[in-house]
Amino acid sequence: MKIINTDVGAFAVRTAGSGTPVVLLHCSGSSGSHWRHVANTLLADPPAAGPNRCRYHLIMPDLFGHGGSAPWPGGNPMRLADDATIVSSLAGFIGEPVHLVGHSYGGAVALVAALNRPEIIRSLTLIEPAAFFLLRNGQGSDRTFFKEICEVGVHIAEGLAAEDVRPSVEHFVDYWSGAGTWRSLAPLAQDSLLRRAAAISQNFTSTTSETATLQMVARLNTPTLLLHGSRTRPIARRIVERLTQMLPDAALNEIHGAGHMLPLTHPNPVARAIGNHVIGREDAAVRFGERPAA
């Protein structure tokens, strides 16, 4: 694991493989190790041979306050754009645009990174992105969903203030993965989530206060794959629906039987979907003369 220093703080990053750069952003409360099984599948089952086929250089950073990365150092509340600077730093470090993948909170960061710096993103894969802000000014059920998710975030903030975060973090885990999930976790996994409660709370603030709009999303031409589980929460499905409707170049893929944590529970179909999307974009770039054939 490497530590990269930037103007806004230091962050840790794991890498694996070589070839086409693919940056993967984890969900809130996790770390780059979140992608371990997806990465193993991508690297163990490379695409079929051919002149334009690629192998992958997988780059898996720890977002601020997670894993080996430092907490957010700024004096102001952290924004999605602040975590998105990690993507810019990695693209600069690598020296070329990247394929960007994000799950849940990482998906919201990936979306904002693409909105702010589309020139450094070859393609997007958004796995149930926690882009709650897109529902804030919606109609009817959109606002109901937004209120519901804000209450989950408020519960964690109140737990931090009371110095008793266990009940609120348990609620957070069970909200996304079903009742009883928290109790089924190993003690080490519970302890890890409890230590990251402050970062999780910051992430809720970032995803509910972001000012990007669906109209801004509609101007994003980056080829985008949207993934969701067939058994996920309605709010996650709604965000994916809104993005599918608004993004000019979007494809939708449902992972059968999966809930919100599909990179962990269904890594093989998630990896295949990511690989096919990256390969498709790389082949298109070669056909249109954007990149030389391998």
Walk me through the structure.
The two termini are 29 Å apart. This protein has 12 helices and 8 strands. Helices cover 47% and strands 17% of the residues. The protein is globular and about 50 Å long. The chain has an 8-stranded mixed beta sheet with strand order 1-2-4-3-5-6-7-8, sandwiched between helices. Strand 5 (98-103), helix 3 (105-116) and strand 6 form a beta-alpha-beta unit. The chain is of the alpha/beta class and 294 residues long. Helix 2 (80-94) packs across helix 3.
Strand order of the largest sheet: 1-2-4-3-5-6-7-8
Average pLDDT over all residues: 92
Helix content: 40-55%
Which oligomerization state do the chains in this entry correspond to?
single chain
Q: Counting H and I runs of at least 4 residues, what is the number of helices?
A: 12
User: What is the structural class?
Assistant: alpha/beta
How do the SSEs run, as a string of H and E?
EEEHEHEHEHHHHHHEHEHH
Low-confidence stretches: none
Tell me the number of strands: 8
Radius of gyration: 18 Å
Specify the overall morphology: globular
Beta percentage is 15-25%
